[in-house]
Amino acid sequence: MHQRPPLTPLAEALPSTVPFVGPENQERQRGSAFRARLGANESGFGPAPSVIEAMAQAAGDMWKYCDPDNFDLKAALARHLAIPARNIVIGEGIDGLLGLAVRLYAGPGDVVVTSLGAYPTFNFHVAGFGARLVTVPYRNDREDLDGLADAVKREGARVVYLSNPDNPMGTWWEAADIEAFVAAIPETTLILLDEAYGETGPVSAQPSIDFSRPNLVRLRTFSKAYGLAGLRCGYAFGDAEVIRGFEKVRNHYGINKMAQVAAEAALADQDYLRWVVARVAAGRERIAGIARDNGLAPLASATNFVTIDCGSDGAFALRVLQGMLSRGVFIRKPIAPVLDRCIRVSVGPEEELAIFEEELPKALEDARG
Amino acid sequence: MHQRPPLTPLAEALPSTVPFVGPENQERQRGSAFRARLGANESGFGPAPSVIEAMAQAAGDMWKYCDPDNFDLKAALARHLAIPARNIVIGEGIDGLLGLAVRLYAGPGDVVVTSLGAYPTFNFHVAGFGARLVTVPYRNDREDLDGLADAVKREGARVVYLSNPDNPMGTWWEAADIEAFVAAIPETTLILLDEAYGETGPVSAQPSIDFSRPNLVRLRTFSKAYGLAGLRCGYAFGDAEVIRGFEKVRNHYGINKMAQVAAEAALADQDYLRWVVARVAAGRERIAGIARDNGLAPLASATNFVTIDCGSDGAFALRVLQGMLSRGVFIRKPIAPVLDRCIRVSVGPEEELAIFEEELPKALEDARG
């Protein structure tokens, strides 16, 4: 019998289980494909035709390593955001950037604050670097800005995470509220403002961009409205010196070249983005209507999904979820207390929403059993 | 004046400079594209036509997140390697997997052993997690197996890195030597055996695959012979429990879907791989011949590049390198003492090697100046 090499104490303490279950895994378990893929907040409308064409054209170039500086994509984003390129860092999705930020700012035992039931991948990173997560409950299905700020100050947090618009609830705060929150956070605490759903929300929910607060890092992605979740490309922007700190630890050749090509092409096709955003807004109405037709209460949403209050407890909503999954409709649900009374349905093409409409009453009937 | 949030002490101590300079950066500096791209050990022969077609077909699907289990690709690799899927982990290139391995096994102050002048990205990860790097000089342009094993034992190293075939020298050890090395390393030390160039080397340089030594993790990639460097996809295989440990810290949605599709298609087209490998072997002969025609000494190579002894010191080889770069020929050179007397030239298509052949005498003449 051979020994195994010892993990670091930090790594030894982490679970080896896969924390995230993808729809493909569920399809393998059930032995057939889902009829509707409405659970991962992807954009079922797909990337722009111009972006698909750019990818096809670039396929033969994939023998080349990516440009580790991400120069062209950063330049395109700088033009798009009207900020200098030095204020931008590209990452392997917001997921990758969140991991780097936690690694840079929160060591073992340091406190990190988030909302109870917010993005689980962020929590995975916090645990992975040995920091201590402090959670603040949602209030009226929104992230509790005052509660988060209080927790930051009480605990001396090194990092605080906030998503606006919010996942998994779809709710949002207006820019003035976000600005007041930022002002309330000590300058020594890094604020990670996740704006993955920024494009589908009201413009009034986005603070204007300035770098007066060096501790504010805002994160956006090509995974949602731009329809490129599979390519893993996000970006962060903020104070130039804070942004430069990511150079210390990022995988310099980590952004795949196809993502560089596709993201740049996607930025160039704002007409398509506007078309998608309009479809998302219409899809939210459609989902909300289906919910109301079934006696449920859809939450107002600024994202590409609608969270629906099933009107009872978490156990009931879980039965609804399971009923939908068993009928081939991939959706998800929040898991934290109170939020867990809801299911979460991503906007998708009408064919898939029609399947959702057809199956929801049956799942509800079974759940009421 | 606002404060900045403090980095962790470990992050604070790391440099913020970009450690890796890509050819695109050099092209921007010089104001024109390179005429020949022979410096990054990419495969200028490109991906297989079947793989390019698979990428083009998959472009429209990029709105979906990847399967976080990498199920299909792992299954394909399991068939290819004739091992169970549970012994395999997929990563964002070997680069990404090396970072995860260091993170799992080497904490602040722990010793990690590598060769002086070996893969710099590995060293970047070691520094990034605060471990202490101990280097062993090459011996006769090969990694010094006895020296590495001695250093591991003397220093109580937690991790040792070895590439076979070697980058940047192109040299290699036979399987029996590697096996003896593995047997000489304590079971409590993780061995990272980087086989990025495995496909282009002699089969006799690859130990047969068994998992009798849980501390041996072997790493391979789709970046080299398979011609997919831009997609960032590598894999590691070894003891199932050691492999499962990567689940603790990997970015579960980190492998882009295009890489999953392309890598699976590439594995399915072994005819193309054989064609590339034959081209690489012929290209090595071609580069070696050019070197000899110019009075230089090419090293025997098992990789997709040839390292050429310029017959003098590091300063001379640097002048040769600079002369080639200024003539539009992108090549690189080793930087560690003794090795630095060489330049390193990747195999590429004949058009590019012809440019190399044309420019080398001029660069040599200038360097001798």
Description of the molecule:
Chains A, B: It catalyses: L-histidinol phosphate + 2-oxoglutarate = 3-(imidazol-4-yl)-2-oxopropyl phosphate + L-glutamate. Chains A, B: Pathway: Amino-acid biosynthesis; L-histidine biosynthesis; L-histidine from 5-phospho-alpha-D-ribose 1-diphosphate: step 7/9. The structure is a homodimer of 369-residue chains. With 369 residues, the first copy, chain A, is of the alpha/beta class. The first copy, chain A, has 13 helices and 12 strands. Chain A folds into 2 domains: 21-46 and 271-368, Aspartate Aminotransferase, domain 1, CATH 3.90.1150.10; 49-268, Aspartate Aminotransferase, domain 2 (3-Layer(aba) Sandwich), CATH 3.40.640. In chain A, the strands form 3 sheets. In chain A, strands 2-8-7-6-5-3-4 form a 7-stranded mixed β-sheet, with helices on both faces. A 3-stranded antiparallel β-sheet of chain A has the order 9-10-12. In chain A, strands 1-11 form a two-stranded parallel ribbon. In chain A, α6 links the parallel β3 (111-115) and β4. The radius of gyration of chain A is 21 Å and the shape is globular. The termini of chain A are far apart.
